Every structure is written in structure tokens, then in C-alpha cells.
Amino acid sequence: SGELYCSLPNPRNVHFESINMKNVLHWSAPEGTGDGVLYKVKYSVYGVGKWIRKPECRNINRTWCDLSSETSDYEEQYYASVKAFLDGMCSEWMETTRFNPLTDTKIDPPMVSVSSTEKSISITLTAPEKWKRSPEGESISLLQVYPGLQYNVSVLNKKTKKRWLFSISNNTLVVPWLEPGTAYCVSAQIHVPTPLLHSVFSKEYCIATLKDK
Amino acid sequence: SVTEIRSGFTAIKANIQARDPIRTLSILSHPHSLHKVQSSDRCCITHHLFNFYVDKVFKHCKTEDSYVNRKISSIANSFLSVKKKLRQCHEQNKCMCGQESTEKFKQILANYKELNVTSAAMKSLGELDILLDWMEKSA
């Protein structure tokens, strides 16, 4: 279809927001435009010639578009682009920078489960899963995506406020020689040495060691 | 080391990639991704690629930004030290070049020659994360 006269201000800040490789394109409305602006979106694989339209994001009035499915191969890199329309006018296509799902995603903290005996607590950590198309889809742990993935674990004695920090590669940790009948709080973070990525610390999971018999 | 290369590149990635307006050509990853290279050929391809970056790429990557230039030369120095180690493997015949790696490297050089030297060098530099992602995944 012939392009309209493109004098509409451009969409701004077109960028990917990615968490666990759920890759969503975001942008801000063109400056000075109120309601009624519609958008269309296209994307391309870096090194491959063609732009591909995203039908589900054609003539939309929201300012985001989920491109997780289209950018799920993290061995590739991508560009995406947005165009705005209002009252018969249009903007230029505005592109993202090159998006590399492997290095440009954010990672959620691990899931933490704890159990205790009289003098120790056992901690089991589970890395988040990579985004998947449907709940029935194959689950891929981020551990498979980042083989060098490690966990930083914080253990706090609630009574003495003493804190220990551990850095482990496997997903279980037993903390021995603790005080019976005492509350301990555990929090964990994911750390990928290269490419350098780390999650925030998880919320605290507190448990008490058993009382002395 | 590779981690130093990665952190150096991360610091200038957006700047370098913004200087490469060509979306339709990749030096390293098309038409065939590095990730399709068989494990037996990985050492040889890595050896070739480090030579490629040292001999053909870094010298053509001057910018008007002194910070970026410093980062590029520190990356180049890290490449030189890794390249020496790879040369030892090559000399001890632990880095055999099969048919596939020879073909793959020919393709990379062909992609490189499709552009003028400065554009090709800047594009290759902007693709360092493709090389690093592949090296770290297959480490």
C-alpha cells in the first residue's frame, strides 16, 4: 500500500525489555500526540535481508508488542522497528539497537526452598526457566542456556544478625554448626560470570532450626 | 582472557554497533551460524578467527572517540595473548582443520570482502559478541 505522507513525529525510545528471554518491544508515543495514535511493528534477524511484519501488532494503540516467539532463537540477534499513524499521517520507522537475547536479557532470582535439622539448614535452589511459547512447551532451564551459572546465597542469623555469604555452582547447600532453636533467613541471587549477568536477590525465606532434644 | 574481551566489548558494544548500518549482512553468522560448526573443528575455527581479528580487523577500527579507541586496543591486546596460546595448540597438532572449518572460514572472508575495509572491520568488531557467545557456549 502506498505510504502516506510521513510527517508525524516518531515513536520514541524503541527498545526491548527482556526477562528470562521473554522479549517485549516497548516504545513511547510520539511527542505531542494525544490519543488515537496507532502503530505497526516489524522485526528482522541480523544478517538476513528482510523485515518481517508482526500481524498481531498491526494497527495497535498500545505501546508494546511481545516478540518473544519471533526472537526465541538466542543464537541469533535481532532488530525491531515501529511506525506510528494518526489522522492520515505517519511517522518514520524507528528501530531498536541490535538485540542479543543471550546478553541483553534480565534474569529472575532463583526459587529457594529450605529445610532444617537441629544444627543445620539445607537449601535447594532452582534457576528460572527460559520463556516458552506455551505451558505445554519444552521447559529449558536458564542453567542450560548459561552453563557457567552460579548462585550467591546469603544466610542471616536473625538473633545475632550475623550473615554468611556463599557462592556455589551446584544447586544445593547445607549450612552446618548452627544454633538449635534459632531462626535463620535465606536469600539467593543468580550470577553468570560471562556474559556478565546477575539477578537481584530473592526475597528472604526464614526457618528455625529444631530445638535441642 | 576471554572475560576481559567480553567486558571490554560490552562497554563499547552500543557505540560500535551503531556505526554499522548494514542489517542485511553478517560477517560471522550468515548464511551459516558459528553454532553449526562441529566440535572437532572448533579449535581450528577459533584459531583462524583470532588471527582474522588481529590481522584484519583491529587495525581498521579507529574512531574519533578516545575512550572507544582505548577499549578497542585493550581488546586487541587480549586477543594477542589468547592468539599465542592458540598458536601453541596449532603447533602441537591439537587444532586440526577439517573441511567444514575451512569452508566456514572462506565464507567469513567472503562476507568481509563484500564491504569496504573500514565498514567490514567495524561490522566484524560489532559482532564480537557473536564470537564470544559461541566460544563460551562451546567451552
UniProtKB/TrEMBL annotation, chain B:
Its main location: secreted. Disulfide bonds join C43-C95, C44-C97. Keywords: Cytokine, Disulfide bond, Secreted, Signal. It is found in: Secreted. Immune regulatory cytokine. This is Interleukin family protein. The chain holds residues 38 to 176 of 176 of the full protein. The gene is Il20. It comes from Podilymbus podiceps (Pied-billed grebe). The keyword Transport does not apply. Transmembrane segments: none annotated. One of its GO terms (cellular component) is extracellular space. It comes from the Eukaryota.
